[in-house]
Write a structure and sequence with these properties.
The structure is a homodimer.
Chain A: H1 12-28, E1 33-36, H2 39-46, E2 58-62, E3 67-72, H3 76-82, E4 87-92, H4 103-107, E5 116-119, H5 125-128, E6 134-137, H6 140-145, H7 150-173, H8 180-198, E7 208-214, E8 235-246, E9 249-259, H9 264-283, H10 290-303, E10 315-317, E11 324-328, E12 341-344, E13 347-350, E14 354-357, E15 360-364, E16 369-371, E17 383-384
Parallel strand pairs in A: 1-5, 3-4, 5-6, 9-17
Antiparallel strand pairs in A: 1-2, 2-3, 7-8, 8-9, 10-11, 12-15, 13-14, 15-16
Helix pairs in contact in A: 7-8, 9-10
């Protein structure tokens, strides 16, 4: 397992390796074709990124031979300039189109009635309807994506350097009275500048840079979206999030922080969060069942009397997106394995006081795990004064 | 029809009017429920914006009574702070979750086996599978969205002022040698600043600001995505795009422009594009069949000998997104009606020379149409020198 930042586009061989793994699962499930509509799955196999809109892009993977890309005329050269694997183009004119020239007119004939066709659970009903043969819902591309290749690890290591830069800027800018929009603008610019310099041919359709700080009056509620002019508040805990997708690789770093002073009650709660977090890192080893980590970390919080203050799982996977399989959560019975990349972010939340959570992007290695994001972690390092 | 910029959030009455129209169509189609998973449809009816990820949000519209929102615990206060209509919350714990606590465990019991349930063509297969009763694929929310209320017109008029500002900045910055990223950064900042000042409680999850210029070496290919450091080239035509979604209202403005000089061959082609465009405006009246506009505009280009240079339809609708029903395209047999908002953007494209296209956001009125975006249109106004 090589752990060095990479910025080059994927080679044809890299994409070939991914396709081979998908086809192994297709063979096991006796599929003649697998159909992908998910832009992230299509990106994974082709390096072409699109946004879902009324003109569909559909990737058809036969069990043997060249992949077929159903796409609109207007986008065909866009696909050709980005795709880094062989593709047979199945081009339709427009959406809508005159009778006989619609996307389904070129899509339906790709299959025979007797074919067995794997589909994603995300496949839209409108495309499912036009898919002939026997369809089997099976998320095999997502399953392959769970274990990263050395190339993907390298790209993720690089993306982590970008969010590290964003977090550094966030910690510089976050002071009492500063509005969220100032922090947001500063960290987005810092990350974008780094990404653009280091990946000059970056695909902005596969890139996103964001971050914010939830002051203590709302940090108990991590999925509320703060309004832009909300100002930083003294005391704490404030919860900060920096996330990015850098040319197709999604990662995050999050820190709990304090401004001017640490309220008396906060020290103990911060320590309990850190205790749950330390246990999660200890358990994050190849072979551990994913839900077991969540279960044991929850027990730390439950034993401390804070069962009601747990409002989310311990972590989630990263890859092309910043939120994907596998999950460090009750109900995920898979085992951790080398090459998985996950967040470790147990948290506890108190209405009227705030929330406590650090998150990092963590690689599972042969022997344990390796944190790929870097920022201060201890309470005394996370107190900032004007 | 009032045509004044608005920036306030929608009232409960406004959302009630929209729901009523959806329910009229539900009644016509004898539906007991309509299920919406599309974030734009959910936003349209509730004012809550979400991004699709592994934790589903599902809006269930019964033929009578309060709407039900299936959502994860972690997001429930987020929904409550944004939604501006009554909602019954159907909350599940997490994704994944322990046996019996998953989203489908709370979703399935909302229906009986005999119910007739309308679904979107965008509904994911994985959600369709858990939807009991008889499902009928019918995009009724999209159908209602086609005709805008006075409130939506006002919000769109405001969004157009934002893209006008972006286009102004783009025309200021676009000079020979300037890299695309400089133009992009400048226009994004200009639009974002205007939007933030005028809509201080803007929902950034329902907002997006973007734009770029395709220099003549690539402007024949409008859906190729230029790389950030590509520099502006002399001559032309360059094609520029400025688009924004401002607190949930998507619009665009696009201009063909020239740097330093206008090549000899370009004048004639620019004029033909303008001739097709003028015809489209003339035809864009209540009662005109949408495909008829596309057909007649195409004929202008065909008569001039440029059939092969038409690579897209004449226009598309705007609303919550920058691309939606209805379409000024062959195959769309609906009629234009007051309250529709569409792009008018016929174009012709020449490999090795470039593309010719202006686009504006246009409101269909009782008597004709009204351009809501504003920027120079004539060739002599669109030549910029250092």
């Amino acid at each position: 397992m090589k752990i060095e930042p990479l910025t080059a586009k994927p080679s044809k061989e890299e994409l070939g390796t991914r396709l081979e793994k998908v086809r192994e699962l297709m063979e096991k499930q006796k599929l003649d074709y697998y159909v992908s509509f998910s832009p992230t799955n299509i990106y994974y196999l082709t390096n072409f990124a699109n946004i879902v809109h009324e003109r569909p892009f559909i990737l058809v993977i036969p069990k043997k031979g060249t992949l077929k890309m159903v796409c609109p005329l207007l986008e065909s050269t866009h696909v050709k300039t980005r795709a880094r694997c062989d593709l047979d183009y199945v081009i339709y004119y427009e959406f809508p189109a005159p009778e006989g020239q619609n996307w389904y007119n070129v899509y339906r004939p790709l299959f025979k009635d007797g074919d067995r066709i794997g589909i994603e659970s995300a496949m839209p009903a409108g495309i499912l309807k036009e898919t002939r043969g026997t369809t089997v819902m099976t998320n095999i591309i997502e399953e392959v994506r769970v274990i990263k290749t050395d190339y993907e690890i390298g790209r993720t290591v690089h993306a982590c350097l970008v969010v590290d830069e964003g977090m550094k800027k966030l910690l510089e800018l976050t002071r009492v009275g500063v509005p969220i929009i100032t922090i947001y603008s500063g960290l987005v610019q810092a990350m974008m500048a780094k990404a653009l310099i280091e990946v000059p041919d970056i695909n902005l359709m596969a890139s996103k840079f964001q971050g914010a700080v939830w002051p203590p009056s709302i940090s108990h509620d991590p999925h509320i979206i703060p309004t832009p002019f909300m100002a930083m508040e003294e005391g704490g805990p404030s919860c900060s999030i920096v996330g990015a997708t850098v040319d197709g690789y999604g990662v995050e770093i999050e820190r709990t922080l304090f401004l001017e002073y640490v309220p008396d009650h906060a020290k103990k709660l911060f320590d309990i969060m850190m205790k749950g977090r330390a246990l999660a890192y200890k358990l994050a080893q190849p072979g551990t069942v994913l839900e077991e980590i969540d279960k044991q970390v929850r027990q730390v919080f439950i034993d401390a009397g804070y069962e009601k203050n747990i409002i989310h799982r311990t972590g989630h996977g990263f890859g092309i997106t910043g939120h994907e399989d596998p999950f460090l959560a009750l109900g995920d019975k898979r085992k951790l394995a080398p090459g998985m990349i996950v967040s470790i972010e147990p948290g506890i939340y108190f209405k009227g006081q705030g929330g406590y959570r650090h998150s990092d992007t963590v690689l599972i290695t042969e022997n344990g795990n390796l944190k790929l994001t870097h920022a201060p972690e201890q309470l005394e390092e996370l107190l900032f004064k004007k």
